[in-house]
Specification:
With 81 residues, this protein is mainly α. It has one domain. It has helices at 7-20, 30-43, 57-78. Helix 1 packs across helix 3 and helix 2 (30-43) packs antiparallel against helix 3.
């Protein structure tokens, strides 16, 4: 890897690395980032507010932040070489 990962991305990388029981450092497969994106879509789907009902702003902001963090980890893992 050319640059250090964020703590969140490093934790995902370490879990993947431990799961494959690797003996040499290697880049995570693109499927790892794809799995994180799928998790973000399932756990925190992108929301659009239609109609007249006002969303709870704090709850909406928290969900958006969680989704953004998951997608950032996926993007960071894809960028590791």
């Amino acid at each position: 890897m050319t640059e250090p990962l964020s703590p969140a991305a490093q934790a995902v990388y370490d879990a993947w690395y431990e799961a494959i029981d690797a003996y040499s450092e290697q880049d995570p497969p693109p499927q790892l980032a794809a799995a994180l994106r799928a998790a973000a879509d399932q756990v925190v789907p992108e929301e659009t507010w239609l109609g007249t009902e006002e969303p709870c702003y704090a709850y909406y902001r928290q969900r958006c932040n969680t989704r953004r963090q998951l997608l950032a980890i996926a993007a960071e893992l894809e960028g590791t070489k």
